[in-house]
């Protein structure tokens, strides 16, 4: 049985929430759970039910696999590629230029 790292799980949830610009209040209200319970999930103090895991995955637009293990599914990449392909040439240029700025900035 693999070890479950609740702190790493909570950190992945928190990082995705912050990347989306969501507050904890926005997420816990969507999940219909208490602020205290959601905060304890993000801080790695408690686990969550399968139902809450699925809801967090949906609200934060990340896979359950990523939440639990940090692994990104290949079909996540396929969706990203398909979205990129659907952009106009001007939109692609905009994305490419900004992506290069992020890479060059080396934000860590």
Written account of the structure:
There is one protein chain. By secondary structure, the chain is mostly helical. About 70% of the residues lie in helices and about 0% in strands. It has seven helices and no strands. It has helices at about 5-20, 25-30, 35-40, 50-60, 65-70, 75-85, 90-105. Helix 2 (about 25-30) crosses helix 3 (about 35-40). The chain is elongated, with a radius of gyration of 16 Å.
Query: How many helical elements?
Result: 7
First and last CA, distance: 33 Å
Question: What does the main sheet amount to?
Answer: none
What portion of the residues fall into strands of 2 or more residues?
Answer: under 5%
Low-confidence stretches: none
Determine the oligomeric state from the structure.
Answer: single chain
Order of helices and strands: HHHHHHH
Overall geometric form:
elongated
Radius of gyration: 16 Å
Total beta-strand segments: 0
In helices, the fraction of residues equals: over 70%
Structural class: mainly alpha
Round the mean pLDDT to the nearest integer and report it. Answer: 87
Fold blueprint:
Elements: H1 6-20, H2 24-31, H3 35-42, H4 50-60, H5 64-69, H6 74-85, H7 89-105
Summary?
By secondary structure, the chain is mostly helical. It has helices at 6-20, 24-31, 35-42, 50-60, 64-69, 74-85, 89-105.
Spell out the key features of this protein.
single chain; 108 residues; mainly alpha; 71% helix; elongated
């Amino acid at each position: 049985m693999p070890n479950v790292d609740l702190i790493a799980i909570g950190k992945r949830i928190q990082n995705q929430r912050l990347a989306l610009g969501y507050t904890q209040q926005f997420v816990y209200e969507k999940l219909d759970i208490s602020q205290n319970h959601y905060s304890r999930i993000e801080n790695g103090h408690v686990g969550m039910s399968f139902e809450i895991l699925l809801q967090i995955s949906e609200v934060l637009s990340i896979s359950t696999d990523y939440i639990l293990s940090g692994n990104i599914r290949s079909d996540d990449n396929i969706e990203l590629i398909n979205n990129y392909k659907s952009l106009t040439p001007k939109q692609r240029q905009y994305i490419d230029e900004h992506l290069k700025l992020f890479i060059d900035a080396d934000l860590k």
